[in-house]
Amino acid sequence: MIVGKDVCKSFEGFKALDNASFHVRKGSVYGLVGPNGAGKSTLIRHITGVFEPDSGSINVAGENVFENSVIKEKIAYIPDDIFYFKQASLDDMMKYYAGIYKNFDRDLYEKLCGGFPALDRKMRVRRMSKGMQKQSAFLLAVSMRPEILVLDEPVDGLDPVMRKQIWNILLNEVTKYGVTVLVSSHNLRELEDVCDYVGIMNKGKVIIERSLAELQGSVSKIQIAFADEVPDFGKYVNVVNHSVMGKVHTLIVKGDSETVEDKLMGLNPILMDLLPLTLEEIFIYELGGENYEVKDILF
Ligand SMILES: Nc1ncnc2c1ncn2[C@@H]1O[C@H](COP(=O)(O)OP(=O)(O)OP(=O)(O)O)[C@@H](O)[C@H]1O
To answer: What protein family is recorded (predicted)?
Structure first.
C-alpha cells in the first residue's frame, strides 16, 4: 500500500532521511518508532505528500504521492503540530472537512463525539488544551473515512483513558473497514498491542522492519529445571541470556520458538515454562549482536 525506496532528504546539507526504505501493507497497522530526530516526522511528511524526496521514491496505492490530489484524498493525516483555523470550533472544522472530503461521515462524527464527552464542540479549538486538540484532530481524521490513516504521535500528551479510547477506535476501523494505519510513537509498549508491523528508524534510516508475529516467534524466554545434572544448553539451542535462581534456569533463546521448545523438552526437564516477552525485550535480544545499540535507540 505504501512503499518507500531509498528515500533521501536533506535540509541545508543535513541528511534527515538517508536511503530510508519501508513497506506498509494494506489493512495493517504499522508502528514507526525511533529516538528524537530519527526522521519519523520527515518520513511521514513524505508519505502524505507534503515533501518531495531529493532522491528515491514513495508510492502510495501504486502512485507517486507528491502533488497527487487523487491519492492525497485517500489519506487522513494528523501531524504533530495540528493546524486549526483561528476562530473555528470543532463543529466548524467538521463542516470544513465535510465540504472537502467526499467520504466524510457526519453520522460517524456524531457517534465518535459521544465517546469524547469532555470535548466542547462549540469552543474554539485553538483555545482547547493540547490533549483536547489531539482528540479533536483524531475525531475529524477518522470521520473522513480514509483508506489510509497517518498519525504522528496520536496519543502523545493524552491521559491513559483517552489513549486507550483512541487505540480502540483505530483498531475498530482497521478490523471493520480495512484501513491502513501508519503511526509513529515513542511507546513500544503501546504499539505492541495494536501493530502488525514495526519499523525502527535511526539517523534517517529504517534500520529494522519486522512483523510482530515474526518477532514474537523469533525469541523465547524459558524457565527450566532439572532433577540432577544440568545440560550445556548452548549445545542444543542459541542462548543469548542465562540466569539461575536455585534450581530454576531462565533462558532467553533465539530461534523458532517451537523448535526451541522441542529441543529443550528432549533434555527431560522436571519443569519447563514458556514466558511472554515484551516487544522491547524481543528487540533487545533479537538485535543484540547486530551492531545496533538497541537500548539507545528504543529508550
Ligand atoms: N524543515 C526542516 N528544516 C531543517 N531541518 C529539519 C526540518 N525538518 C526536520 N529537520 C531535521 O531533520 C531531523 C529529523 O527530524 P524529524 O522531525 O523527522 O525527527 P523525529 O524522528 O520525528 O523526531 P521526534 O521524535 O523528536 O519528533 C532533525 O534533526 C530535524 O532537525
So the answer is: Belongs to the ABC transporter superfamily.
Give the pLDDT confidence of 165-184 residue by residue, as tens digits. Answer: 888 888 888 888 889 999 99
Confidence of residue 85 (pLDDT cuts 50, 70, 90): confident
| Average pLDDT of the residues in 79-84 | 76
pTM as predicted: 0.82
Say if ligand 1 is within 6 A of residue 45 CB.
no
- Ligand 1 atom 4 nearest Cα: 11
The H-assigned helical ranges of the chain are: 40-47, 69-72, 90-100, 106-114, 130-143, 160-177, 188-194, 212-216, 257-265, 279-287, 294-298
For the Cβ of 40 lying below 6 angstroms from any atom of ligand 1, the answer is yes
Q: How far is the CA of 37 from the centre of ligand 1 (A)?
A: 5
Domain of 244 in residue numbering reads as 217-298
- Within this chain, do residues 265 and 242 fall inside the same structural domain, yes or no? yes
Instruction: Choose the residue to mutate in 9, 22, 33, 40 for probing ligand 1, maximizing ligand atoms within 8 Å of C-beta.
Output: 40
83 and 114 in one domain? yes
Where residue 259 falls (left for φ over 0; alpha for ψ -120 to 50; beta otherwise) is alpha
**What's the grid cell of residue 193?**
498491542
Looking at the fold, whether 173 and 87 belong to one and the same domain comes out as: yes
ipTM field: 0.96
